[in-house]
Amino acid sequence: MTRKLESIKSPIEAEMKEFERRFRDAMKSKVALLDRITYYITHRKGKQIRPMFVFLSAKLLGEINDSTFTAASMVELLHTATLVHDDVVDGAEKRRGFFSINAIWKNKIAVLVGDYLFSKGLLLALDNNEHQLLQILSDAVRKMSEGELQQIAKARRLDIEEAVYYEIIEKKTASFLAAACAVGAASVDQDQSVIDRVWQFGQDIGMAFQIKDDLFDYGEWHIGKPVGIDIKEKKLTLPLIYALQHATRSERRRIIYNVKNENHKAKKVKEVIDFAKEKGGLAYATRKMEEYRDRAIILLNTFPDNKARESLLELIHFVTERKK
Questions:
Q1: What is the pTM of this model?
Q2: Cβ neighbours of residue 310 under 8 Å, at least 6 residues apart?
Q3: For the chain, how far is it from start to end, CA to CA, in angstroms?
Q4: Are 32 and 56 in contact (CB under 8 A)?
Q5: Residue spans of beta strands (DSSP E) within the chain
Q6: pLDDT tens across 18-74, in order?
Q7: How distant is the alpha carbon of residue 95 from its chain centre?
Q8: Is CATH 3.90.1010.10 what the domain over 5-321 is classified as, yes or no?
């Protein structure tokens, strides 16, 4: 049964409301156009999973304070900036059911808005002398960029192996979720070994999160986006990587040809999806996701037993059992 975010938020409900106010303030600008766009962004908010990880990681270890609010706002500013830039790169016209920034205001403005959000996130840390938070999150953003570029390079050659896939998703997704947990911990606890354990917890759940996301592309759930979008973009994710590893030479050649040259044809995309299912790719990817989930749970259970830990456990199940 899917966990409800409302119950997961209960130990940090007041803090999340205060965070939303502070986040809106952090986005404000004296430039009218920019202020209009940031207003639009704040009113199409998503599930706010990453700020939840910040606050729950902090509350797991101590009392939420101003440093925690700064960490959560930085996380959301930098994450939002990456989404705005991703939509430009992908040519996406929708984000969470709303028109993307580039769809309404065009690419040039969208890129500049992303730059603005990045700078606001960095300045928020400097203005509050939060150099440790800045270090953790800047390192994560660097890894995200490397992961995306690595994936693009591999998509051109279609030669990605399972170990490389894990390396890519560790950088492009897990690193930022790990950083969100780590800055939450660092806002209340200065013990580096504790911060490192929380970071590892975040990385494990981030790996599970991305594998789950990649499984959506194979049409097992209704998620409100076109099935096979990764295939159309020549991205080899775990279900297909596994299937290709267990294919004959002729099957492999045919599927690679479809991905490389026929990815614009719905019939050929479906052929690739069916192949991944028949070869056990979806079942294998699901098992790997569950392994990362279980590692995160084992690590979580080494921390104090309190309401925040209970909510983090529920949040783990939410991100690995979600339907979209």
A1: 0.90
A2: 11
A3: 14
A4: no
A5: 94-95, 98-99
A6: 999 888 888 888 888 988 888 888 877 778 899 999 999 999 999 999 999 999 999
A7: 14
A8: no
